[in-house]
Amino acid sequence: MSRTKPYPLSVECLYTDDTKTLMTKGHHDPDEFMKACEFWNGGPLDGWGGKVRHAWGRTVPDSSGDYEFLMLPAKPHARGAYPVTTIIDDADYDHDDKPDVAQERAR
Hints:
Blueprint: E1 12-15, E2 20-25, H1 30-41, E3 53-61, E4 69-73, E5 82-88, H2 101-106
Antiparallel strand pairs: 1-2, 2-5, 3-4, 3-5
């Protein structure tokens, strides 16, 4: 099994026309990630309906020119893929059946 590179907890904000996603490279503790997100936000994430998630992403250039780059879902350990910890601002976009990180840790 491949060893995952450690990443510092550094919150970035990704925008689309509909949503904002806060993310950091690496799979970080959800509580620490939320503290970093609240620091980034200057206070609580009021109105953010999403859940903290661990996933994998890959960054690619945006050929449309609308954005500098796109962060796309990726298979774990695939070429160019990196682990991410995320939260999205809209619960309507965060409705899949996957448990959030806190639920996964409770198992």
